[in-house]
Structure formats: C-alpha cells, structure tokens
Write a structure and sequence with these properties.
mainly beta; about 15% helix; Lipocalin; eight-stranded antiparallel beta barrel; about 140 residues
Length: about 140
C-alpha cells in the first residue's frame, strides 16, 4: 500500500511538471533576441486614444534599400538614410552611440538624444515608441 501511495505521488508530480513546462501559444515568436544588429525601418505610426495606427514608412525611397539603424555590439550606432535628391539611392550615414536600460533604447546622434520604449523585440522585429506615442517598427 505504501508503494501505491508513492507511485501515485510520483505520477502527480510528473503530471504537474509536464503541464507547467508546456508551451503557451500566446508567447509564440517571443524570444530573448539580441538588440545589436542592422534594423530596417518598415512602419511608422502613432497611438491616439489607445488605438495604434501604423503605415509604411514614407521616408523609404521607392527603388532604394530601406533606411536603417545599425546597432553595434560596442554601443555605437550608424543610421542610414537613402535619398535620391542628389543622386539615385545615395545613402547619408550618421554615427552616434546608444544604450539600453531595461525597456528603453537611448540614441545620441549629433548631440541629439532620442529615448524610446522597446515595445517589442524578437529576432525579426523591433518596435519602438516615444513619450509622445510615436511608433517606429524595424525589421531585420
């Protein structure tokens, strides 16, 4: 009878462990993604009265690569802006530094500081939002 009680307790423990380790579909796609890397601007938008509105990034020149920010491991950042005003798809690059503190990304380029909340970070998407509700969505 003692063995039957121990066996039942063991089965219950294994069942609880298996249930607690089960993956949850709501977290699918979430990962501990690195922030460093080249991110291309994809969408921009805003939040008005709690409703988020996104659109394709108008700063991307048709026929050119997408504007980008390249966050280096050494905390330097390069921002690239493709512009066809002078010549087709000419890229203008600005250099600066960045830091991450919990869910904030701070970039300093040409003496201008930009602080944004990291709303979403996966292997393929970085979504940033500033204190005014302006949103930028980057993809790798």
């Amino acid at each position: 009878m003692k063995n039957h009680g121990r066996f039942l307790a063991l089965v219950l423990c294994i069942g609880l462990l298996a249930t607690s380790c089960n993956s949850d579909d709501s977290n699918e796609g979430e990962t501990l993604a690195p922030l460093a890397g080249k991110w291309n601007i994809n969408k921009i938008g805003t939040t008005i009265l709690g409703t988020e509105t996104l659109m394709d990034a108008p700063q991307n020149q048709t026929g050119c690569d997408k504007d980008f920010m390249d966050l280096k491991i050494d905390n330097t950042v390069i921002e690239g802006d493709y512009d066809s005003t002078i010549s087709d798809c000419a890229v203008v690059m600005d250099n600066g530094i960045y830091s991450r503190s919990h869910n904030n990304l701070t970039r300093v380029i040409d003496g201008v500081t930009k602080v944004q909340d990291i709303v979403n970070l996966t292997l393929h998407e970085l979504k940033l939002k500033d204190s005014n509700g302006n949103i930028e969505v980057y993809i790798r």
